[in-house]
Amino acid sequence: MIYERLSKGKRKKASEGGYTGGWVPYGYRRTDGGTIAVVPDEAAVVERIFRWAAEGRSLPAMAKALREEKAPTRNGGAWRPSTIRGMLRNRFYTGRVAFDGDLIRARHDAIVADLLFNACRTGGKPA
């Protein structure tokens, strides 16, 4: 019964575009008020990654470039191709969240436009 109530509450919050918990991607932070805010310095790195991907740069080349320019990671580690791959697949950057198989417009700001996100998926440059 408790599980059902929690699920209904979480589903309602998600359907209204609210944050339902979990890991917050690089480029964002959870605020004291419980909302999600963009971190400008990290957002610039995120946008650069998506632009490079749309231009056709490889994951290892992007990771190497970020390491060379000493772009900060969330936890101070090194940039890895697998980290970048996960970012490029994450619709959260477009201001949407996945819930029960649906993409829902969320309340947090997008860092990446849909056009750029889709260009990364197809290997084409955004208009």
Q: How many strand segments?
A: 4
- How do the strands line up in the largest sheet? 1-2
Task: Measure the end-to-end span.
Answer: 50 Å
Structure class? mainly alpha
**CATH arch. level architecture:** Alpha-Beta Complex
Tell me the β content.
5-15%
Assign a percent range to the helix content.
40-55%
In the CATH scheme, the class would be: Alpha Beta
| H/E topology pattern | HEEHHHEEH
Count of separate DSSP helical elements? 5
- Biggest sheet: strands, sense, closure? 2 strands, antiparallel
CATH superfamily: Putative Large Serine Recombinase, Chain B, Domain 2
Low-confidence stretches: none
How many domains make up the coordinates?
Answer: 1
The averaged pLDDT comes out at: 84
Shape: globular
CATH topology: Hect, E3 ligase catalytic domain fold
Radius of gyration: 16 Å
Describe this structure in words.
This protein has 127 residues and is mainly alpha-helical. It has a single domain (2-122), classed as Putative Large Serine Recombinase, Chain B, Domain 2 (Hect, E3 ligase catalytic domain fold, Alpha-Beta Complex). Helix content is 45%, strand content 11%. It is built from five helices and four strands, in the order H-E-E-H-H-H-E-E-H. The chain has helices spanning 2-15, 40-55, 59-68, 81-88, 114-122; strands at residues 28-30, 36-38, 96-99, 102-105. A two-stranded antiparallel ribbon has the order 1-2. The protein has a two-stranded antiparallel sheet with strand order 3-4. Strand 1 (28-30) and strand 2 (36-38) form a beta hairpin. Helix 2 (40-55) runs parallel beside helix 5 and helix 3 (59-68) packs across helix 4 (81-88). The longest helix has 16 residues, at 40-55.
